[in-house]
Amino acid sequence: MKIYTRTGDKGHTGVIGGRVRKDDLQVEAYGTVDELNSFVGVAMAGMDEVKFADMLEDLLNIQHELFDCGSDLAILDKAKREYKVTADMAEKLEALIDKYDAETPDITRFILPGGSASSAALHVCRTVCRRAERRVVTLAERQDINEHVRTYLNRLSDLFFTIARTANFREGRTDVEYARSAEVFRRKSDR
Questions:
Q1: CA angle, 99 as apex, 39 and 117 as ends, to 5°?
Q2: CATH number of residue 105's parent domain
């Protein structure tokens, strides 16, 4: 099988159910999800396999789910295939958020991205995930999409924030609070 097909040389690409311009909102949305998936891979590559074994397993599963998100976003004609992303996938992310959040100390102020290398890489994932979500919101204004993808990405960015903090905690690093921030978060005991 050849990697190159030459079918996109004129600025169009195939989606499920047809062809669109390569700069189409649909391509931008699933392309940003693909970019996110690549950053997840970069984050995983820098993580200690023992200290972060559970996180690495969860992130690998997320990479598969991001492919599902991209696949659902690449559908031009809904009659061509059923969606893959379901509501329970976001619920599973919520369970992971709760699990990892239980490891971290209370936070009351905004924090700066960074700390350990693993945490910094996960914060990059968080911000790219937010951009992917924005692209999906824009796409949904123009055409029908699988709404579960938008919910999934929203929850996923929260998970990246949480595991970035967990990574710092496991590495013995303290989150750096934004010095000009007022107290904006409730303590876990107040939730």
A1: 35
A2: 1.20.1200.10
